[in-house]
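Example record

One chain of 279 residues, shown exactly as stored in the release files.
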Amino acid sequence: MSAPRFVVDPLDPRAPSSEVWEQLTEAERRYVLMTLPSEFPSADPPEGDPHRIPKEKALGALSEFFRSRQRGVYLSAELPVYYPDERVFAPDLIAVLDVENHERMSWVTSHEGKGLDFALEISVAGNKKKDFEDNVVRYARLGIPEYFAFDVPRQRLMGWRLARADAQTYEPIRPEGGRWQSRILDLDLSLEAGKLRFFSGTAPLLDAQELIVRLSTMVDEVLHKSEEDARRADAAAAKADAAAAKADAAAAKADAAAAKAEKLAARLRELGVDPDQVA
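Predicted structure tokens for this chain:
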């Protein structure tokens, strides 16, 4: 087997340039995809639960929202992203619209046929300059339509978008009523009680834990109503049974009175008296 025409540098893993990618055979492309790392060392230190929790909540809320609408939106967190001949990067959360939603080890734009549509970074103790300055320049140059960054300690949310598909620089997204509009997701982002929250219209998107609590409450309410309905049905049946028993008693009393009257009438006939003539 001849040597591959493109070899991934483990110290600086990059996807081939667009020109090189076009020249590769399908087998060579598969080889590149297999050798691009799905993990890579980061210069940023771990940021703990204050970083993990908002990322997981955002991913869970968006996943449930788009699943319920049956739209093909691929979502992932800290997935290695490879643009042609660019340094690999891994935003805290990404979204790509109208693509197959299956598991991936990385996002390689040449292979997927498109780049990211939305990126979000959550900053706790990491490099603020990277998230709020460097990425703003780089993501715009790469053509990512929208980018948001959330500074957890400072409770600061910022967003940027490309005004045109061919633009190379971002324009800031101005908040309205405390909300930042994402045209890509057709949702609003906001900070609520110190937490990042997505809104569809006036309705907040629920994260996984909130959804579980709401569903549990709904189940409890249904069960409570079912038990109340059963108790009312039992009471109505008992009342109906009592009414039926009372009616049966009245009927039996009437039958007894009629039988007694007939016996008296028979006795009068025996005595030669017509019962009908008795006043």
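Notes: The helical segments are 18-23, 26-35, 49-68, 109-112, 128-142, 208-270.
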